[in-house]
Amino acid sequence: MKVFYSPFSPFVRKVLVCAGELGIEIERLPSAANPITRDQTIVAANPLGRVPTLFADDGEVLYESRVICEYLDATAAQPRLFPANGPARWRSLREQGLADGMLEAALLMRFEQTLRPEGMRFQPWLDGQHEKVASALAQFDVWAQTFDERVDIGTISIACALGYIDLRFPNEGWREHKALADWYARFSRRPSMLATQHPAQ
């Protein structure tokens, strides 16, 4: 399998962490994904021009981390990241949904700060996105008290979201959420997390 890759994408990282946990090898294809100047190499395979874009061994092309992660789990020798129907499944999918939503808000903040000219930036927009991030972090802190050593799409999504916050918003101060910080300190030492760390900037 191959995936269009950006070392700074939290969604690509989520795919690679899932692959690592499942023992699946994925070749990383370099790309230059950008919301304004789209990489036409990606667009040729994915009309959205976004990463991750996965090329499966059977020639199928899949987009978006949620779809790709479920595909990897379904095709693995021992699927285990997406629980079967029941409370555990909806719990992990809810966690993934909130983590992805927090990442989307964080990415919008990042784009506003780096892609929009300074004189055109809209502070109420930034504040509104930041409120989503803060609310999600508070909820994760509540949930983290029950995570224990669980590894599934929910906890992987949350860990990758926290890694991105550390990368782009190092002054966020989210470690004031003690239960979440303690859990992340353990989870981030997993080999799959260490092998996919964002480059230091």
CATH topology of the largest domain: Glutathione S-transferase Yfyf (Class Pi), Chain A, domain 2
Please write the string of helix (H) and strand (E) elements.
Answer: EHEHEEHHHHHH
The class by helix and strand makeup works out as alpha+beta
Largest sheet: 4 strands, mixed
Strand order of the largest sheet: 2-1-3-4
Give helix % range. 40-55%
What is the correct CATH architecture of the largest domain? Up-down Bundle
Shape: globular
Total of helices: 8
Average pLDDT over all residues = 95
Beta-strand share of residues: 5-15%
Could you tell me the number of beta strands? 4
Look at the structure and give the CATH class of the largest domain: Mainly Alpha
3D architecture notes:
By secondary structure, the protein is α+β, with helices and mostly antiparallel strands. The protein has two domains: about 1-75, Glutaredoxin (3-Layer(aba) Sandwich), CATH 3.40.30.10; about 85-190, Glutathione S-transferase Yfyf (Class Pi), Chain A, domain 2. About 55% of the residues lie in helices and about 5% in strands. The chain has eight helices and four strands; from the N terminus they run E-H-E-H-E-E-H-H-H-H-H-H. Helix 1 (about 10-20) packs across helix 6. The chain is globular and about 50 Å long.
